[in-house]
Amino acid sequence: METIFIEDKIYDKSDFTLNPLRKGEYENCTFIACDFSNSDLTDIIFSECTFVSCNLSLAKLTKTAFREIKFKECKMLGLRFENCSQFGLSFSVDDCNLTHASFYQTKLKKTTFKNSHFHEADFVECDLTGSVFDNCDFSRAIFENTIIETTDFRTSFNYSINPETNRIKKAKFSLSGILGLLYKYDIDIEK
């Protein structure tokens, strides 16, 4: 099958569950209110693309490349980022739902996440060095052997991070979020 190259195209309200996105490389494209849920995005390369109000839930990401991508107001439930091509993997997330997403062993250094939900997300062995989580909810998210050195959690909440099993040197936390670092000790802290 011939590989296609698409540049500077806007996809508006496209339903890729009915008509799958063609395999190829998409550069500087914008996807608005598109449905990719349960789609197979294997081997597709996205470079400098923007996804706005899209549903990418449970999309198959085997060797999918996300390079300098912006996700805004997207539903991204159950995505397995560890299956993506790790070469050049970089994106920002703003106001998205990443419940049940998996970032297992993924390198996401200096990544910006804003106003997003990471309920029950898997950050096991992920490298988040220098990343910023601005107003993010981590209810029941898993951090184990995760590198969060110099990562900023100051405005985020509901995280449970064990300092003994994660690398947290110079990570930033707010005083109100300190309970998320002490949860394992089962102690009562009053205001």
Layout of strands and helices, then pairs:
Blueprint: E1 4-7, E2 10-12, E3 24-27, E4 30-32, E5 45-47, E6 50-52, E7 65-72, E8 90-94, E9 112-114, E10 132-134, H1 179-182
Parallel strand pairs: 1-3, 2-4, 3-5, 4-6, 5-7, 6-7, 7-8, 8-9, 9-10
Structural descriptors:
single chain, 191 residues, Pectate Lyase C-like, 10 strands
Q: Could you give the order of the helices and strands?
A: EEEEEEEEEEH
Shape: elongated
CATH top level of the largest domain is Mainly Beta
Number of helices: 1
Mean pLDDT: 95
Percent in helix: under 10%
Concise synopsis of the structure shown:
Helix content is 2%, strand content 20%.
Characterise the protein shown here:
The chain is mostly beta strands and 191 residues long. The chain has two domains: 73 residues, E3 ubiquitin-protein ligase SopA (Pectate Lyase C-like, 3 Solenoid); 94 residues, E3 ubiquitin-protein ligase SopA (Pectate Lyase C-like, 3 Solenoid). Helices cover 2% and strands 20% of the residues. It is built from one helix and ten strands. The termini are far apart. The mean pLDDT is 95.
